[in-house]
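Discussion board: Methods & Data

I've been asked by a reviewer to show the raw model output for two of the constructs in my manuscript, not just the figures. I'm not sure how much to include, so I'm pasting the format here to get opinions. Each protein appears as its amino acid sequence followed by a line of discrete structure tokens. Is this the kind of thing reviewers expect to see in a supplement, or should I convert it first? Here is construct A:
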Amino acid sequence: MNAQLANWDDLRVFLAVARAGSLSGAARSLGVNHSTVFRRIAGLEETLGVRLFDRLPTGYALTPAGEKTFGIVERIEADVTTLDRTVTGQDLRLSGTVRITAIDMLAFWLLPDHIRQFRESYPGIEVEIVVGNETLNLSRRETDIALRIGNTPPETLVGRRVGRLEFAIYGAPEYCAAHPDTDLAQQDWIGFDNAHAPLTRQFESFLPGVRPAVRSNSVACAVRLAKAGLGLALLPCAIAGLKPDLTRVAELPDAFSLDLWLLTHEDLRHTARIRAVMDFMTSALGEALTPNTKGM
């Protein structure tokens, strides 16, 4: 009987803590504060009459009862999201909210103007932008549309390749003037961590053995670091090429580029508001990535 009293919001919090292994991690993923997560977990344990987590110095670990609960709640989550996608997929209204996730450089520099134009055409559709490098789960409806970079999108998703992001080497004019040496291996470099594995691999292939002086998990941050004169960086031409305070220093020998994809879940592709965003953004982003905007 106690289990029947647990509501879905509490179960969602339980899943978030189990996956993150901490209250703070769960709070970040849910967009709530630490105390809310603590209160929800305590209330759920009281309702169920069982301890779900061991509170350890390293975080929250599932108890045996928590492990069993986790498996059951994951199945409930799958059923709830299937219901949600199925019902949403039949929605023919050009109204409601569409949640788009994108990494920071796309959210900061490629999306804003296009979102403004989209809202002028579809004022009944509200757009929510989720900025981050982490991959949100489309199947669990953590987002409706994902704007992702990479040449091999997940097979479980459907979508469109809207263009290619070309990359080249950029630096601040002041840095380039102070470091005229043409040997790129002797320059200071701004690199990336494993959040941008394709860029990291490209850099290691291009300049084997060279260690970046500064690293970031954010391309937007790398642009700002390059503008500050900390070194050279591999940056997307569609963004860096439009910055007057960045100079295109050199091309990459193999014309490195990555595909840009708009992706959604199969069950949502026919939802009117999601289809409207997909259609509009495919055209708008495709134009933004045409050669005359790449800083060539």
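Construct B, same format:
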Amino acid sequence: MPRVKRGTIKLKRRRNILKQVKGYRLGRSTKEKQAKEAIAHSGVHAFSHRRDKKGVFRRLWNVRINAATRPLGFSYSSFIGSLKKKNIALDRKVLSQIAEENPDTFKRIVENLEK
């Protein structure tokens, strides 16, 4: 069986792996075996954290809506409850943007609920 020299391909693969772990600490940034493991784990965390990010933003929108409704005499839960009773289909993201950027419009929405 002839001898196979894998120098260039092996080196290219190693460089690619080490390029991905640039900035990691200790052996994870210099040793190929530890680097491969670090890449695998980072991929798992990246996947789950992309899902978590959606919940984080929803909590942020809730806090913004609550902060905007308190001075107008509503709590967050009563505000969302009255929106559902009146069949106003604005999601939390849009409501928080309106509350932050256009407080007058948000105030009109709240006044519309009181009637």
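Answer (T.O., handling editor elsewhere):
This is acceptable in a supplement if you add a one-line summary per construct. For B, something like: The chain has a mean pLDDT of 94.
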